[in-house]
Amino acid sequence: MKYHLVLQFPGDSRNDLEALLALEDRLIGSLEPEHVVDGHDVGSGEGNIFIHSDNPSAAFELARPLIPSAMFRDLKAAYREAAGQRYSMLWPPNSLGPFEVK
To answer: For the residues 10-36, what does the mean pLDDT come to?
Structure first.
């Protein structure tokens, strides 16, 4: 697949991890096989879910309604080419800040 999409949420507590894992399970059931959920990581104050896709915008649009509102308000979503380094922001719209995975 051509792109890596990252859904990023603040937090690294046990409750944050449990919410992230529950969302990851919902995404696997709804996005695959067209978009492949490739795991998660938690630490340094953030949690990430990684998704491989040929169309990251379409994957994000499918994922949006699955994200609980408490998580969605702090969501950042960005993608990069599989072999690339630089992320392009999808959410929040018109975000000016850089996106990085710690």
So the answer is: 93
CA distance 19 to 15: 6
Whether pLDDT at 98 is above 90? no
What structural domains does the chain harbor?
A: 3-81 (3.30.70.1710)
SS (H, E, C) 42-90: EECCEEEEEEEECCHHHHHHHHHHHCCHHHHCCCEEEEEECCCCCCEEE
Question: CA 60 to CA 65: how far, in whole Å?
Answer: 9
| pLDDT at residue 58 tops 90 | yes
**Those residues with Cβ within 8 angstroms of residue 17's Cβ, 6 or more apart along the chain or in another chain:** 42, 47
Confidence (pTM): 0.95
